[in-house]
Amino acid sequence: MAANASTQSSRPAAFTMREAQLPLIMTYVLLAIGAVVMILPFVWMVSTSLKPDREIFGDSIRWLPNELDLQNYSDAFEQTNMPRIFANTVLVTAVAVASQVLLGSMAGYVFARLQFRGKSLLFFVLLTTMMVPFEVLIIPVFLLIRAFPLAGGNDILGQGGTGLINTLGGVMFPNFVSVFGVFLFRQFYLGFPKEIEEAAIVDGCSRIGVYWRILIPNSKPVMGTMALFAFLWSWNDFLWPLVVVKEDSLKTIQLGLSVFDQEQGTAWAELMAASVMAVVPVIILYIFLQRFLVSGGLTSGLKG
Amino acid sequence: MNHALQRPPLSSSEPLVWRQRLYRVMNSQAFVACLFLLVPVALLAALKIYPVFYNLFLSFTRYELFEPPRFYGLKNYNYVFTNSTVRQSIFNTILFTIEAVPIGTALALIIAKLLNQSIRGRVFLRTLYYLPVVSSVVVSAMIWRWIYSPQHGLLNHLLGTVGIPPQNWLNDPNLALISLVIVTIWGSIGSNMVIFLAGLQDIPRDIIEAARVDGANSLQNFLLITVPLLRPVILFVVVTFTISIFRNFGLIFMLTQGGPFNRTNTMVWEVYQNVFGYLRFGRGAAISVVMLLIVLVLTMISFRVLRDRQGA
Fold first, then answer.
1. In 3-state terms, what secondary structure has residue A266?
2. pLDDT of res. B286
3. Domain B75-311 CATH (choose: 3.30.300.10, 2.40.100.10, 3.40.50.2300, 1.10.3720.10)
4. What is the DSSP letter of B134?
5. Residues paired with B62 in a beta bridge
6. What is the pLDDT of residues A164-219, one digit of tens each?
7. For B66-78, how does the pLDDT look when each residue is reduced to its tens digit (9 = 90+)?
8. A9 to chain B: which residues are within 8 Å by CB?
9. What is the distance in angstroms between the CA of the first residue and the CA of the last residue of chain B?
10. CATH number of the domain at A72-301, please?
11. pTM confidence score
12. Domain ranges of chain A
């Protein structure tokens, strides 16, 4: 992007001024209108979460609350088991991030650097699985988790009990590894200078040593990208936890939000406060790590 | 673990030769590859490859969880293509795509084009446009349900100020799908915009400059040069966007549950209903197989388009 900006500024100044003046104002106006529409729902969420009920259900729109009211946040905390829900979500997400970074970098190293029989076939098969969205595999994966041997009352053949259904292990299981991660790391290692590794091998370093001492310490950017994606997928995951978890004490934050959706009506103020709490960690992390996403631009459409 | 694998010093004494041999095996490319791939490949085989075939198998069976699956021939597929609810879910999925994809893609392209200039606050604006992508589907759905709320919702309030009577956005059969389409477009502009921004960087600047010198204005430049040059990227966005609509479960679960009168019942919702509502695993599997086939065809199109673009 920096390169792009500099090519633009190297244009003849007079030419730019005359031709671009009017469209530039229009550009700002259009982008500002668009940006307002995009963030208005978030503003409304925060605004609602800070209002007392009589302002929420008033006759006119109040963009800003008259008095700041943090009551909704403490209510949201009390009505759900928020510390437990957050602990579950953090645990599930941390395991997913660590596992996807580690396994992705190991497999990525193998596919980028090592030669063995059947490598291109295996790689092709993995490439193909990237096309299969998780949503269409929900039935067999559910049955697989349910038949997990020696868990939830199952015997060694996975019969008789409920397996990993209704456990945090069951929530984590599909998120241990992502094909996307394997490809991300492979691409990165393919671009990594081979000479350093060759020199290390000549000096007597083993292959595992090369991976551990040379590639891993130099993988920070790609690890950042992978960690951010894994965090977003796991933290925001809804369908799989919905299918696996029954008990309230095992719910993740996305499931926890539905608590405020009761039969006697929705507790909007508390729901918006809980939504703020669910989305703030993600937004903070995104703002700090978004530079890692710039390199992964084209891949952002290929979730899963 | 590395110390065990340090290359042993060269020596002719008997135990060291043995150690050297072991080291040579353990340091071979095939051994390290097996060691490193064991866990990830086993997991992917269990979670991505085996389920595709097991799903296909289940689609030919009748399975209601408490008895073993039994062979059911093509009856599930017969049901998928004749049952009016399932057929409506296929129709709704297509209608959803037709309503969301063209407008959503066009908006993302226009915003990307506007952002692809050296303007102040570019990174800030890009972050704002991307926020709905980062936010979870559940949070987005909850915010929009509150905005769409018939009595105290923001949208009816705003429309009231210009004299439009309040609407029951999510429960009116004529409005429910379009209400979901609006949320979908809002939630996807950011990710599509990022793809377009990457595509716009690849367009040589001198082509646009040359057209400008020849007297083309901004609009002509955009329609006659940028859009044709971006055609492969546009197609790629259209395909990935369409796939994301096929996968869109959370929004329907949170906002309409397929209603009113099945107007927002899409294929992914129909799978969920059959399996976790009625415990009809075989039927759900058959709908999943149809969905998978559609998604595979669309993905292959997008891969081909992407390859052509990179080759060019």
1. strand
2. 95
3. 1.10.3720.10
4. H
5. B70
6. 999 999 999 999 999 999 999 999 999 888 888 888 888 888 999 999 999 999 89
7. 888 899 989 999 9
8. 118
9. 46
10. 1.10.3720.10
11. 0.86
12. 1-69, 72-301
